Amino acid sequence: MPEQNPTEQNPTPQKSIDPVRLSGVLALILLGLSAGAFSYAVLSDSAAETEAQAAAAASAAATHSAFEQLPLEARSVFVYDLREERVLYEKNADAQLPLASLTKVPLALVVSEALPQDYLVAIPRDTAPAGSAMRLAKGEVWKLSDVLTFTLVASSNEGANILADIADGAVRVRYPEAPEGAAVLWRMNALVRQLGLAHTYFLNVNGLDESLTEAGAYGSARDYAYLISYAASTSLPVFAGTTRGNLLLSDEGGNTTSAINTNEALGKIPGLIMGKTGYTDLAGGNLAVVFDVGLSHPVVAVVMGSSFDGRFSDMREVVTAARQSITQ
Asked: Is 302:128 a contact under the CB 8 Å cutoff?
């Protein structure tokens, strides 16, 4: 069954990435993140090092206390303090698991790289049956920014397919080596390779299971923490809608549609910067968020392999523990 909407499924040489331009709170997002690992600064002065070690020990004890015995269903969890550059909690963080609709974040990055946000998209086919509250109808003309918002917030699989189709030619202009008809998928995989995410790859653009035994995309919680932090730091306006609940969107002809956020933990995550849900039979429940625990203090949290409802309760527990470990 879908998530109350026709969206998430239920029970060659590479060109370099453009330089990342950070500002404000998100200037901290990528600090401390490296390809495949999170590093810690080393103090050279022995007195400062001793003091830092004592502070780190106290901080680690507080963190351990906050996360100790959390009732989590998730198979894999990773929580990282981006400002302090430290792991707050991890559980099987490098396990390679199905991503489900977490796949739509790199899809949005690739499409936004290839096309401007005001690009007009003529919807080639209905994204849902007639009468559905959340629906882009064939023939309607929408700005790319709204199609992206609809696809991310409502987690629309057909929206993802349409985005990949309309961006195919533009991606091939930028990357002539990309295969025709699958250029967006190719670029998604090239992007995660460039970011050094060794556990992550995509078989399709929406994250739906390919079969009863093969998922549409795979990755680890640690990898995805880097990926969503990268998305927040480089392309935050694309994902702004993921912090809101029910959206009413209008196309160029005045047609309207709703986009109801699939993140049921939305109201329990103060300071939310961006987020994405995922759910399929093989993946179980996934949820990834970047949130602020205070002024210029972002944290990234990823839970994977939970249940449909468990991903939301897991994230609420994780967010509460993260706040406690940082503020106490």
From this structure: no
Domain ranges of the chain: 75-327
Q: What is the pTM of this model?
A: 0.84
Helix (H, G, I), strand (E, B) or coil at 243: helix
In angstroms, the CA 328 to CA 79 distance is 17
Element (H, E) at 180: none
What is 75-327's CATH topology? Beta-lactamase (3.40.710)
Per-residue pLDDT of the chain (328 residues; tens, 9 = 90+): 444 444 555 444 444 333 333 333 344 454 444 433 343 333 344 445 545 444 454 455 445 678 888 999 999 999 999 999 999 999 999 999 999 999 999 999 999 999 999 999 999 999 999 889 899 999 999 999 999 999 999 999 999 999 999 999 999 999 999 999 999 999 999 999 999 999 999 999 999 999 999 999 999 999 999 999 999 999 999 999 999 999 999 999 999 999 999 999 999 999 999 999 999 999 999 999 999 998 889 999 999 999 999 999 999 999 999 999 998 7
